[in-house]
């Protein structure tokens, strides 16, 4: 490996660029044999190790993530964030840290962002200066170009989980017992929290607990859920093409999923008008439905759902009427910004007050090693006999 890196460093950037241009003109893949032929055409003499190193560099630049390729392949990395050519950060589960990776210029960051967007069938240019897309392998891409990004091109890559975790790997004993009981009782629930708190990872682990005879219908913007379960059907939203047509929304997919005989309807992330169809579905005999939702606290969930549903055309009274009958529990996650550790902070039940509006009432809080009971714990135990 060391000799290959040394060999790659001997190749002048001008030579690597000449080989890149030659391969781009022919449209050929940057295989070692074609790189060797291009090097000979440029009258450059290198050994096998150097040719392989240059081939890897060119493949990363032409069809991979360029200088970010090694970061994306590193164990434990969940996010790679580029704030211009000289600031590349990663999160490997212990919080964000700055890396030594850099780009020659902002133009190089821009070209990489545009190439990744094009690979996902999306447009990224001055007329459309931002993009949100999914790459091959499930990597989530978000990019913003100047002048929208004031200082430099910003690029965010979020990797899907490399493997499915068990519930016990994610959550300590008492919380895991409660979550297992919620799944066993087929309560309808939402997992909530901020960005990076592990909502999708926990939902995958909980869905893995569903009995093998159940049929799981997963509706997602980007296929991220990976439950260990024998009967999973995945539906994935599709953005409009370059002409602005052909898009398929989450709301479209929720409606289709209801016609596919789901035992559990799962919406990977509730973020728009699909909340109307989800609430309606959970009110018509589809027990055990679940999903994730961005929220700062469990108490913020009812007003957050209210805002989404009202924007989709429901009245406030109709939202709370459906909400009280559709959803049972909220499982809220938090993340320590200093250590990067994630945890279940509380489990709440949704309760309709005499005013007719729904609130989130704590049942169990996990801010200390011993769970703290809340006013809704007797009701939760009545629904879930497995909770001691």
In a nutshell, what does this entry contain?
With 388 residues, the chain is of the alpha/beta class. The chain has helices at residues 2-10, 13-26, 32-41, 48-62, 69-73, 106-119, 167-170, 173-184, 199-207, 250-258, 274-282, 301-311, 316-326, 377-383; strands spanning 79-83, 88-91, 96-98, 130-134, 140-144, 154-158, 189-193, 216-220, 232-236, 264-267, 290-294, 329-335, 342-352, 358-365, 372-373. The protein has 3 domains: 2-62, no CATH class; 66-158, Beta-Lactamase, CATH 3.30.450.370; 167-383, P-loop containing nucleotide triphosphate hydrolases (Rossmann fold), CATH 3.40.50.
β-strand number: 15
What structural class is derived from the secondary structure elements? alpha/beta
* N- and C-termini, Cα separation: 55 Å
| CATH topology term of the largest domain | Rossmann fold
Q: What does this entry look like structurally?
A:
This protein is α/β, with parallel strands linked by helices. It folds into 3 domains: 2-62, no CATH class; 66-158, 2-Layer Sandwich (Beta-Lactamase), CATH 3.30.450; 167-383, 3-Layer(aba) Sandwich (Rossmann fold), CATH 3.40.50.300. Helices cover 36% and strands 20% of the residues. The chain has 14 helices and 15 strands. It has a 9-stranded mixed sheet, with helices on both faces. Strands 3-2-1-6-5-4 form a 6-stranded antiparallel sheet, with helices on one face. It is elongated and about 80 Å long. It starts with a helix and ends in a 5-residue tail after the last helix.
């Amino acid at each position: 490996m060391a000799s290959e890196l040394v060999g790659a460093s001997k190749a002048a950037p001008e030579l690597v660029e000449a080989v890149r241009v030659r391969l781009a003109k022919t449209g050929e893949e940057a295989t070692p044999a074609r790189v060797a032929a291009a090097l000979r055409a440029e009258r450059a003499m290198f050994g096998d190790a150097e040719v392989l190193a240059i081939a890897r560099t060119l493949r990363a630049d032409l069809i991979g993530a360029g200088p970010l390729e090694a970061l994306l392949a590193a164990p434990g990395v969940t996010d790679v964030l580029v704030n211009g050519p000289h600031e590349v950060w990663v999160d490997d589960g212990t919080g964000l840290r700055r890396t030594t990776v850099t780009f020659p210029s902002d133009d190089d960051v821009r070209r990489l962002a545009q190439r990744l967007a094009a690979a996902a069938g999306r447009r990224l240019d001055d007329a459309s200066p931002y993009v949100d897309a999914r790459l091959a392998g499930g990597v989530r891409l978000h990019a913003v170009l100047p002048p929208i990004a004031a200082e430099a091109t910003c690029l965010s890559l979020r990797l899907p989980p490399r493997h499915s975790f068990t519930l016990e790997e994610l959550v300590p004993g008492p919380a895991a017992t409660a979550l297992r009981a919620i799944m066993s009782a087929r309560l309808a629930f939402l997992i909530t929290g901020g960005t990076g708190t592990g909502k999708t990872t926990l939902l995958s682990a909980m869905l893995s607990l569903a009995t093998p005879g159940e049929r799981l219908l997963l509706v997602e913007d980007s296929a991220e859920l990976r439950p260990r379960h024998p009967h999973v059907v995945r539906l994935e939203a599709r953005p409009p093409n370059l002409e602005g047509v052909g898009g398929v929304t989450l709301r479209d997919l929720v409606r289709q999923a209801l016609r596919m005989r789901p035992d559990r309807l799962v919406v990977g992330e509730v973020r728009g008008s699909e909340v109307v169809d989800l609430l309606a579905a959970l009110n018509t005999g589809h027990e055990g439905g679940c999903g994730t939702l961005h929220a700062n606290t469990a108490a913020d969930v009812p007003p957050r759902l209210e805002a989404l549903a009202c924007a989709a055309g429901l009245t406030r009274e109709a939202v709370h009427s459906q909400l009280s009958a559709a959803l049972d529990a909220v499982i809220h996650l938090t993340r320590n910004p200093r250590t990067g550790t994630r945890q279940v902070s509380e489990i709440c039940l949704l309760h309709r007050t005499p005013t007719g509006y729904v609130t989130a009432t704590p049942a169990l809080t996990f801010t200390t090693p011993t769970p703290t009971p809340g006013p809704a714990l007797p009701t939760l135990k009545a629904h879930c006999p497995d909770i001691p």
